[in-house]
Design goal:
The complex is a heterotrimer of chains A (about 270), B (about 375) and C (about 300). Chain A contains eleven helices and ten strands. Chain A has a six-stranded mixed beta sheet, with helices on both faces. In chain A, helix 5 packs across helix 6, helix 5 runs parallel beside helix 7 and helix 7 packs parallel to helix 8. Chain A is of the alpha/beta class and about 270 residues long. With about 375 residues, chain B is an alpha+beta fold. Chain B has two domains: about 70 residues, no CATH class; about 210 residues, no CATH class. Helices cover about 40% and strands about 10% of the residues of chain B. In chain B, a hairpin with an 8-residue loop joins strand 2 and strand 3. The longest helix of chain B has 24 residues. Chain B is globular. Chain C is about 30% helix and about 15% strand. In chain C, the strands form three sheets. Chain C has a seven-stranded mixed beta sheet with strand order 1-9-8-5-4-2-3. The longest helix of chain C has 16 residues. Chain C is globular and about 55 Å long. Classes of the chains: A alpha/beta (about 270), B alpha+beta (about 375), C alpha/beta (about 300). At the A-C interface, helix 3, helix 5 and helix 6 of A face helix 6 of C.
């Protein structure tokens, strides 16, 4: 058990208030059960990894818990600032969207989906501040410069266009854009997928640091067990829409109980 | 040279109209065109004006063409403007095109179909060689077409009924609780658009625009290389139910071209494979338009089925917003209106930016500013 | 329908008052009322084809046609001038189909229809300004899709607009929009005031008059009722500013009206004159004179009157 998880286990004994609570979540597409009866709690400062092969239902699960797709059954409760603990699908659409903008971040696998490619990097990073009512250009620009440094991007590229950046740089801009407004919960969908192995490694280090420094709660979806080991405190292993195994990352990866998990783990290249 | 302002707008407009009328008349020594001549001898122009003008009246179309000096889009605009003033009695009964007394009916899908392949009056197999006897007005000696010994049997079953036995072609039948068809001449466009809205917009849409889109769909910008199930052209009766009578009466007949395109053949998990259908229906004999319309219909249906709008012809907003040539022409040509006030705003800004640019350069020691030209008179 | 040549050559047919039929006027009035009830919100309406092309003022014409009556006094301007060709054309149209009195004097008008300018003379209670709008959607340049922009307004998600202003400052050191400057209406809806110069934006804020906006081709009507908050977008450190000139009006000497630049020759000589021609002539009649008073421009104007 790593230090953070120990901390959380302790915290749970003292103040058992999850930030995100998913209960009995199910979603079908025609005959296919993409997600069946998934339940878990997520606490502040915790990184939950959802792992599985493609087709395991992890993307559907992510879309349902991040408010992008209503499930057929079950509840997704989040401790919202404005309404307290609420099922996000009981909120009106404007309220849900506002909550997503103000309290959450979502880092997409493909920067194209998470950035305005026609806007400059600085404008992309400043936008969440403007959405929250920021109206002082100078201050916001200074803030974007600070974040550029924080995600290890060269500030001379502030007014550059993300479409001309490398993949790794685009992801760094995406990360800055999703953290600048201090969300409490960040969803990440294969954030390092498609990147060079060395670029991945550096990016993962950065993300770990930021998660720790900001005490973020993160839901990280990945098919890459190495990424899961590096980033997640806890894992949910999915197969064909069901959670087949769950537990602390080290335990699941070092001592997988289920045959499917064993298969997944054994197929990982040891870097 | 002292500046003389452009004034007397009213006089200018009146004179412009008079000059326009002279241009329209052309050489006064040449006989004036009769609208009945236009109606009879330029019938395809009439058809297009009725179709895009959304008003079936051959004489009005002929007048519009004469007044518009042959500019078809201008004539369409006139018809549309006139249509706005017409009172609306109600809607006809749905047209029964199976009952069409088709002068022409072909199908590329089958070698022969019940009712036969009837060539009709078509340009299709003509050799496009200019016929100078027409210039010499030598039409009097042309032999008439031969009539067949047996009269054509009606009704001719349509392609849908041919497929119906095997349920091979998708059928579009409104549900009993379906709302009244959308009317674009009464309501603004709304997205996502229902098929009724789409088809109405396409029927009124510019033939050239739809032709280009259909073409693009066949060439890789989209995925539409359909089969021509059927094209038929001929007279269809129009029926109307007056409130006082409570039963339908025939109020006339109109010439229509109908085109059904066949595509696809995929199915789904819950649906047996079936051919998809694209539909085109236009006033008069506008075949190219009816074919283009049905092909664009197919492409737009693809988006309904979940395909990405990754080509212009599949993008509903792109197609429907820009297919109306009266709107398009108005907006494009509005650029001729004076814009000097907003232009002045732009000039102020660009001059400011230039001044700042050269200021920065001077500060950096690089002077590239061009010499000041002219003098301010103020 | 077969029509003989004689019927086709019928003289002008009889039109309903103000051209549109009563049903259509009613439909437009309902849209106007809805627009006034939700300031800045674009109300879709069944815009009709008019004898004037789309893009040339059909929206403004339909709004005016729906509200005009025989007791109204109608003024029509384009670029601030009563005698530009399109203003003349529209004024003639209403004189004919609405049998209404027309005027060039802003203070005498009950309805002022305008393209791209708001008159210099402050409008009073009881006056209605009808603006012609080519593109009612302030976000259209940034997002082509109507389905998207409609959602943005519904969710009050205007981030994309602020991003564009932010970038303007980053690239040029200022917000460079000079006309059609976006404004927040009643702290809720973002609107474009039509392509008026930003110089005119302050006139919409807390006006005593009713302001109606008609977009015929795009089929939208929106409105700003009297005494409504209309705030042009800006940043605290880059506040909204209107245009100003070093020059004054060459004819009347005005220092605070919007000026047109008139090119005098091809050697760079130019002069500046009030865009609002009536405002300028009122000043000249009152004895004000600019450095080029007595210039051919003024003389021709007086001759035409």
């Amino acid at each position: 058990m790593n230090a953070l998880a120990q901390q959380n286990a302790l915290a749970q004994q003292v103040a058992p208030a999850p930030l995100l609570s998913v209960t009995g979540l199910s979603k079908r597409f025609g005959n296919v059960a993409a997600c069946s009866d998934v339940s878990f709690d997520l606490y502040p400062g915790e990184v939950l990894g959802i792992v599985g092969e493609s087709g395991s239902g992890k993307t559907t699960l992510l879309n349902c818990i991040s408010g992008r797709m209503a499930p057929d059954a079950g509840e997704v409760a989040f401790a919202t600032r404005r309404f307290g603990l609420s099922d996000i699908y009981s909120l009106s659409e404007p309220d849900r969207r506002r909550m997503q903008r103000e309290e959450w971040g979502f880092v997409h696998q493909n920067a194209r989906d998470g950035l305005r490619m026609r806007a400059t990097a600085s404008a992309n990073v400043a936008e969440p501040l403007m959405n929250m009512g920021g109206r002082h250009y100078g201050k916001m620009r200074a803030e974007t410069e600070k974040w550029f440094n924080r995600v290890e991007l060269d500030p001379s590229r502030l007014d550059g266009q993300p479409r001309l950046f490398s993949g790794g740089m685009q992801q760094r801009v995406q990360i800055a854009r999703n953290l600048i407004h201090r969300p409490r919960l960040v969803f990440m969908d294969e954030p390092t997928g498609g990147l060079d192995v060395s670029v991945q490694a550096r990016l993962l280090d950065l993300m770990r640091e930021l998660v720790r420094d900001l005490n973020l709660a993160v839901v990280l979806v990945t098919h890459d067990m190495a990424v899961a080991r590096l980033m997640a405190d806890r894992l949910l292993v999915m197969k064909q829409g069901k959670v087949v195994e769950t537990g602390l990352t080290d335990q699941v990866l070092d001592d997988p109980q289920q045959p499917y998990t064993q298969l997944l783990v054994s197929s990982v290249l040891q870097i | 040279m002292a500046y003389v302002a452009v004034k007397g707008g009213e006089t200018a407009i009146a004179n412009a109209h008079r000059w326009l009328a002279e241009e329209r008349r052309g050489d006064p020594a040449v006989p004036e065109i009769d609208v009945t001549q236009i109606r009879e001898q330029l019938s395809l122009a009439i058809d297009r004006v009725m179709c895009e003008g959304s008003c079936y009246d051959r004489d009005l179309a002929a007048l519009a063409i004469k007044q518009a000096r042959g500019d078809i889009q201008e004539a369409v605009f006139m018809i549309r403007a006139y249509r706005t003033t017409l009172p609306r009695f109600g809607a006809s009964e749905p047209l029964d095109t199976i009952q069409m007394r088709a002068a022409r009916r072909i199908s590329a899908a089958f070698k022969d179909i019940p009712g036969g392949q009837v060539l009709g009056p078509t340009f299709d197999y003509t050799h496009r060689l200019l016929d100078f006897t027409l210039a010499a007005n030598g039409e009097a000696d042309i032999p008439p077409a031969l009539k067949s010994e047996e009269p054509q049997e009606y009704p001719m079953p349509n392609i849908a009924s041919v497929f119906a036995h095997e349920d091979l072609l998708e059928v579009d039948v409104p549900t009993p609780d379906a709302p009244e068809p959308y009317d674009l001449t009464r309501q603004p466009m709304r997205f996502p658009a229902g098929r009724d809205q789409r088809l109405q917009a396409l029927a009124r849409g510019d033939e050239g625009f739809l032709l280009g889109l259909a073409y693009s769909g066949m060439r890789g910008w989209g995925n539409t290389h359909p089969l021509c199930g059927e094209i038929r052209y001929g007279e269809v009766d129009v029926e109307f139910v007056p409130e006082e009578l409570g039963f339908p009466i025939e109020i006339g007949e109109i010439l229509l071209t109908e085109c059904v395109m066949i595509t696809g053949g995929k199915g789904g998990a819950n649906k047996a494979p079936q051919y998809g259908r694209g539909y085109g229906l236009v006033f008069g004999h506008c075949e190219r338009k009816s074919m283009s319309m049905s092909m664009v219909d197919i492409a737009l249906k693809a988006a309904d089925a979940g395909e990405a709008a990754n080509a212009p012809v599949k993008d509903e907003e792109f197609v429907l917003y820009h297919s109306d040539n009266v709107e398009a022409s108005g907006f494009v040509q509005h650029l001729k209106l004076p814009h000097y006030v907003d232009f002045q705003a732009g000039l102020l800004t660009i001059r400011q930016l230039r001044a700042e640019f050269f200021e920065r350069q001077r500060a950096n020691g690089e002077a590239t500013e061009p010499a000041a030209i002219g003098e301010l008179v103020s | 329908m077969t029509v003989t040549a004689q019927q086709s050559n019928q003289p002008t047919q009889q039109y309903n008052y103000a051209y549109l039929d009563e049903q259509t006027k009613r439909m437009i009035r309902r849209a106007i009322l809805k627009a006034l009830a939700i300031p800045g919100y674009q109300v879709p309406f069944g815009s009709r084809e008019m004898p004037v092309p789309y893009g040339w003022g059909t929206g403004g014409i339909q709004v005016t046609a729906a509200i005009i009556g025989p007791d109204d006094v109608f003024k029509c301007i384009d670029q601030g001038a009563d005698d530009t060709t399109n203003a003349v054309s529209i004024r003639q149209f209403f004189a004919k189909v609405a049998d209404v009195a027309t005027t060039e004097a802003t203070s005498e008008a009950t309805i002022v229809q305008s393209r791209h300018r708001i008159p210099e003379k402050t409008l009073k209670q009881g006056q209605i300004l009808v603006l012609q709008v080519p593109q009612p959607e302030p976000l259209r340049g940034l997002e082509a899709r109507e389905t998207e922009t409609r959602a943005m307004h519904a969710y009050e998600e205007y981030g994309v607009k602020y991003v564009s202003l932010y970038q303007s400052i980053a690239a040029h050191g200022r917000i460079t929009t000079g006309a059609g400057y976006p404004a927040m209406v009643n702290q809720r809806y973002l609107m474009t005031p039509s392509p008026i110069p930003k110089f005119d934006n302050p006139k919409i804020n807390q006006s005593d008059a009713i302001m109606l906006f008609g977009a015929g081709r795009e089929k939208r009507i929106y409105a700003v009722p009297p005494h409504t908050d209309v705030r042009s977008l800006d940043f605290e450190d880059y506040p909204f500013e209107i245009q100003s000139w070093e020059e004054i009006c060459a004819l009347c000497g005005s220092e605070d009206s919007y000026l047109d630049e008139v090119v005098l020759d091809d050697e760079g000589n130019r002069m500046f004159v009030c865009s609002d021609t009536h405002h300028c002539s009122v000043r000249r009649d009152a004895g004000h004179a600019g450095p080029l008073a007595g210039h051919a421009l003024a003389t021709a104007q007086e001759a035409a009157e």
